[in-house]
Design a protein that fits this description.
It is a single chain. By secondary structure, this protein is α/β, with parallel strands linked by helices. It is built from 12 helices and 13 strands.
C-alpha cells in the first residue's frame, strides 16, 4: 500500500505504526521522524517566511475571512505517486491542506484512493485515529499494540497525579500564540489536568481562542506554558522576550508571582499525534518534578522566570 500524509501528526502516527516504508509523500511541515525528510513534498504554505507573529495573525485572519487557501497542494506530484491511501485533516483551516481541497483532486487519480480526514480534539480521539489508520492500512494488530503503549504512558502520569492534593495543583494557562494572545484549546486543558495542574484558560475540546490581556490577568495563573503553534524554541524565544517585557505581564507577575515555561509547541503540543503523550510527560515534570520524572530523551520545559 502506498500512503500519502498531508499532516505532520498523521505522518508521526503512520511511522509509529511501523508503516514508514509505505509512506510515499508528505506535507512541507512533516519533519518527524527524521526518516521522512527527503520524501516527495506535496504542499506549500502561502504565508511568507520571516513575518512577525502579529503580521502572521493578520494575514491568516484576512485569508480565512476571504475564504482563501493558506496552502497549495501539488496535484501533479500527488497524481504521479498514485497513492492508495491519503491522510489529511478537517480540524483546523490554519494547520494544513483541508480535506475538501484533497477530495477535489481524488477524482483525477486513476486508482481512486481512500481518503481519511483526521479531526481529534482530545487524547482519546488521538488514540482512535491510530485505530482508524491501522485499519485503513490493514494492520489492526499493530494499531492495538501502539494504542496500548501510548495509553500506558498516559495512565502512568495520571496515576501519579491522582496522589497530588488539589491544594498543591497550580493554576496553569497554556498560550499557543503571544501576539495577539491565544489560549490552548482542544486537548490542552486535559493535558494540564492529567499533569497535575488546574487549567484556568482555554476551553476543553474547543479551538484555541483569541484572548485579551485582561483575560489572562483575571485567570491569575501560577504557571504559564508558552507552546507556540508552528514555532520551535528558538523562534518562540523572540516572542517570549517581548511578552515578558510588557507592563501587563509585570502586573501579573506582581499580583500572582506567575512563573513562565517555554516548550517546543510545534513538536509536542500543537500536533494531535503521538507526541502529545510526550507533551504530557514534559508538562508533568515541569509542574511536579519530584513526582513526575522526565523520561529519557525528552527535553525539559525551559523556565523563563
Amino acid at each position: 500500500m502506498k500512503i500519502v500524509s498531508l499532516l505532520p501528526s498523521a505522518t508521526e502516527l503512520i511511522c509509529g505504526l511501523g508503516l514508514r516504508d509505505q509512506l510515499v509523500g508528505v506535507s512541507h511541515e512533516c519533519d518527524y521522524p527524521a526518516s521522512v525528510v527527503g520524501l516527495p513534498i506535496l504542499t506549500r504554505s502561502r504565508i511568507p517566511p520571516g513575518l512577525s507573529s502579529d503580521k502572521i495573525d493578520a494575514l491568516v485572519t484576512a485569508q480565512l475571512q476571504d475564504d482563501a487557501a493558506l496552502y497549495d497542494l501539488n496535484e501533479d506530484i500527488l497524481i504521479a505517486l498514485e497513492p492508495d491511501l491519503i491522510v489529511t485533516q478537517a480540524l483546523c483551516d490554519v494547520c494544513a491542506v483541508s480535506g475538501n481541497d484533497v477530495a477535489k483532486v481524488i477524482g483525477r487519480l486513476p486508482n481512486k484512493p481512500q481518503l481519511i480526514n483526521l479531526e481529534p480534539i482530545c487524547l482519546d480521539d488521538v488514540l482512535a485515529t491510530v485505530s482508524l489508520l491501522a485499519s485503513a492500512a490493514n494492520t489492526p494488530l499493530m494499531g492495538e499494540s501502539y494504542i496500548a503503549s501510548l495509553q500506558a504512558r498516559i495512565n502512568q502520569v495520571a496515576t501519579r497525579s491522582n496522589k497530588i492534593a488539589n491544594t498543591d495543583k497550580p493554576k496553569v494557562a497554556l498560550l499557543d500564540w503571544l501576539d495577539p494572545l491565544f489560549d490552548g484549546g482542544h486537548w490542552t486543558p486535559e493535558i494540564i489536568a492529567l499533569a497535575g495542574g488546574e487549567p484556568c484558560l482555554g476551553a476543553k475540546h474547543q479551538p484555541s481562542q483569541r484572548r485579551q490581556w485582561q483575560d489572562l490577568l483575571s485567570a491569575k495563573p501560577d504557571i504559564i506554558f508558552v507552546a507556540l503553534c508552528g514555532f520551535n524554541v528558538a523562534r518562540s524565544m523572540r516572542d517570549v522576550k517581548q511578552f515578558l517585557a510588557t507592563d501587563a505581564f509585570a502586573e501579573l507577575r506582581h499580583q500572582v508571582g506567575t512563573r513562565v515555561y517555554l516548550v517546543d509547541g510545534n513538536a509536542y503540543f500543537s500536533r494531535p499525534g503521538p507526541r502529545l503523550v510526550d507533551a504530557l510527560e514534559i508538562m508533568a515534570n515541569a509542574l511536579h518534578p519530584n513526582i513526575h520524572p522526565l523520561p529519557k530523551g525528552l527535553p525539559a520545559a525551559i523556565k523563563q522566570c
